[in-house]
Amino acid sequence: MDNILTITEAASLQIKDMMKENGEESSFLRVAVKGGGCSGLSYGMGFEEETSELDFELEQHGLKVLVNKEDAPVLKGVVIDFKESMMGGGFTIDNPNAVASCGCGSSFKTATNAGTPEEC
């Protein structure tokens, strides 16, 4: 599946710096969706050494990325960016599939998958 998600160059550089700091340079970045959050679904990102036959493998700006095939439809079209401001920096996730998100911005729901809402 092509173009599951996009990780901007700024986000890729930040993630690669984090990987280097943690001795994870050879790892993949796992981008996932899990049930939870006040809108029903939330994002997960972490480092993994191994792939599975259940994963799509992507590469963006030299960053190796894994997405579980079950998560791919919910993540299709997502853009992950890193923005700097006077208050510091942080990752932003723009998901065109999200029909609603919670006030705290950490969870969402789609038209086809709402997950199980929890309190923020």
Give an overview in words.
Residues 5-105 form the Core domain. The chain has 120 residues and is mainly beta. The protein has a single domain (5-110), classed as Hypothetical Protein Aq_1857, Chain: A (Sandwich). The chain is 14% helix and 45% strand. The chain is built from two helices and nine strands, in the order βαββββαββββ. The chain has helices at residues 9-21, 72-75, and strands at 5-7, 28-35, 41-48, 55-60, 63-68, 78-85, 88-94, 98-101, 107-110. The chain has a six-stranded mixed sheet. Strands 1-6-7 form a three-stranded mixed sheet. Strand 4 and strand 5 form a beta hairpin. The longest helix has 13 residues, at 9-21. It is globular.
SSE layout and pairings?
Blueprint: E1 5-7, H1 9-21, E2 28-35, E3 41-48, E4 55-60, E5 63-68, H2 72-75, E6 78-85, E7 88-94, E8 98-101, E9 107-110
Parallel strand pairs: 1-6, 2-5
Antiparallel strand pairs: 2-3, 3-9, 4-5, 6-7, 8-9
Distance between termini?
A: 33 Å
* Structural domain count: 1
Any idea of the CATH class?
Mainly Beta
Largest sheet: 6 strands, mixed
What would the CATH topology be? Hypothetical Protein Aq_1857, Chain: A
- The number of distinct helices, counting runs of at least 4 residues, comes to 2
**Helical percent range?**
10-25%
Radius of gyration: 14 Å
**Structural class by secondary-structure content:** mainly beta
> Which strand order does the major sheet show?
4-5-2-3-9-8
Q: Name the assembly state.
A: single chain
Give a short summary of the structure.
The protein has 120 residues and is mainly beta. The chain has two helices and nine strands. The chain has helices at residues 9-21, 72-75, and strands at residues 5-7, 28-35, 41-48, 55-60, 63-68, 78-85, 88-94, 98-101, 107-110.
